[in-house]
Amino acid sequence: MKALVTGGAGFIGSHLVDHLVSEGLDVVVVDNLSMGDLHNIKYQDEVTIYVEDVRNEKFMQQLLQEERPDYIYFLAAVASVADSIERPAETHSVNQTAVFNMLEYIRKTNLPIKQFLFTSSAAVYGNLPELPKKEDSRVDPLSPYAIDKYATERFVLAYGELYDLPTVCVRFFNVYGPGQNPSSPYSGVLSILTDCLNNKKPFTLYGDGSQTRDFVYVEDVIQALWLITKSDTEHEVFNIANGNEASLNAIIETYEKVAETSLQIKKAPGREGEVKRSVANIGKLIKLGYTTKWSLEAGLSKYWEGA
Ligand code: UD1
To answer: What pLDDT, in 10s, does the model give residues 125-139?
Structure first.
């Protein structure tokens, strides 16, 4: 069996690649290294790697013809709400057009695949009051990022139904763990916090810190992705999260305890297009056999150990 992972040198992608290799799959990675790093992949020698952009349509088509993957995990994305507000056209070309073009090519050429998994985001739920978010909760995408993720989900699911393709979507909540790149101001908050605590840099807190998120350790995310693959599920959406709500203030406090050091905080106004509260219902995943192995404290301790 062969798997293609777009964004396979990125934070979540590289953990997935290592897991797929350990399960005995042949793995092909496409990554333009905009945020990813080949060093993130532990089993680099056992993986076929193409340093390319998923927007290169000709290249992607040739790749699919030559490699003929059974499983496709589409993780390549500009994974930032704030970045999508700064550069909506550019992020749209990655977050939606590249995925759409691949689906369309698979449809037109009848490429046989076992599962096409698209990685969407909790950002699609927006600020509607129902909590925790279930997969069939109403959505309210507030940013170009969330709109692209939601619209692409709809394409992926509709292509699945209309053209009988085995497609599935997952909505990542806030994933953290080793390998998350802290270098951009748009990086995930826990990678930035780790960098600030480690290097005694000031941390910019956007808003009052009462915004909440459902932080899930990357190993649990990989567990979830693999369960979805093994279950041969199709035409479904799954939340991938921990199932617990924590405010940014509470997270900072927990992390300071874990790291035994205090953070220097600079306050800034809240970011545009942001979600105020976020927490998932993970019942659908639990039905597939998912159990969260990492509490926030355990995950932060492990992350801090390696930092
Ligand atoms: C994150 C993911 C996104 C995913 C979504 C799902 C990243 C970069 N983004 O978006 O891909 O789809 O979760 O829920 O991982 N913050 C600060 N200071 C900073 C950085 C962030 O205060 O230096 C705040 C933000 O304003 C926000 C919170 O921390 O309120 C989390 O921010 P961030 O890690 O960027 O994640 P999301 O926007 O939730």
So the answer is: 999 999 999 999 999
CATH number for the domain spanning 221: value is 3.40.50.720
Could you tell me if the ipTM is greater than 0.90?
A: yes
Whether residues 152 and 202 share a domain: the answer is no
Measured between alpha carbons, how far is residue 109 from residues 65, 74, 113, 181, 200 in Å?
Answer: 9, 19, 11, 36, 54
**pLDDT tens sequence across 218-227:** 999 999 999 9
DSSP code string of 168-184: EEEEE-EEESTT----S
Q: Is residue 285 part of a domain?
A: no
Mutational test site, ligand 1, from 184, 189, 245, max ligand atoms within 8 Å of CB = 189
Ligand 1 cavity residues, CB under 6 Å: 79-81, 121-123, 172-174, 186-189, 192, 204-206, 211, 213, 248, 271, 274, 278
pLDDT value of position 184: 87
Nearest ligand 1 atom, CA 175: 15
